[in-house]
Design a protein that fits this description.
single chain, alpha+beta, Muramoyl-pentapeptide Carboxypeptidase, domain 2, four-stranded antiparallel sheet, 6 helices, 43% helix, 16% strand
């Protein structure tokens, strides 16, 4: 007769004793969500720290090139790994938008980015960003020279890779720099499914 394992109470923090065989399942959903949100901020800070370190050594232009390559590679190689677990089939632009929400640097459940999506139909949408921590950092720290590469080039190219569908065209409708403090739109993009690959 085998002994039945009794499930221990899920922990809402880790204030108790050290647990060498600790697993995610030991924690409550609330704790895991808080940890994931913190991980997201650390993930983005890691990218920022890396950029700062590399640009001091090799210059802004080369650092920008490498940063773009890195983010495109994440979209190309890492985002598809969410497909088997999520059940998403990439048949429409909306499907690809759902996939993008699962990325660690997405806008889902965060105060780092905000905005809205206008779904014209399942293969045509307009995404408007009204709060972007990255753009606002460049504005606040008086680094306007970083805006074109990050907001006009990298955002478009990395997004195309994050969508994981070469038939989706990403068109810039409005990109920074903003016209002034009353300009509430950080950027605005149109995503359209084409009949043939566009890249």
């Amino acid at each position: 007769m085998s002994e039945s394992k009794t499930k221990t109470t899920e922990m809402n923090d880790y204030s108790g004793p050290y647990k060498h065989d600790l697993v995610f399942e030991d924690f409550t959903k609330e704790f895991l969500i808080k940890m994931m949100l913190l991980w997201r901020k650390q993930y983005l800070r890691l990218a920022g720290y890396w950029y700062e370190g590399i640009q001091k050594r090799i210059g802004v232009e080369r650092a920008d090139e490498i940063q773009l390559e890195v983010w495109k590679r994440i979209g190309d190689r890492q985002l598809p790994k969410f497909l088997p677990m999520s059940g998403i089939q990439l048949n429409t632009v909306v499907d690809s938008l759902k996939l993008m929400q699962l990325a660690p640097d997405s806008w889902m459940g965060t105060d780092l980015f905000d905005g809205h999506v206008e779904i014209i139909d399942e293969n045509h949408l307009i995404l408007t960003c009204t709060h972007c921590l990255v753009l606002e950092f460049f504005e606040r720290t008086n680094q306007p020279e970083r805006i074109p590469m990050h907001c006009q080039v990298q955002e478009k190219e990395a997004t195309e890779d994050y969508l994981c569908n070469p038939k989706i065209e990403v068109i810039a409708l409005k990109v920074p720099p903003r016209s002034g403090p009353d300009d509430e739109i950080c950027c605005k993009w149109e995503y359209i499914m084409r009949d043939k690959p566009v890249r």
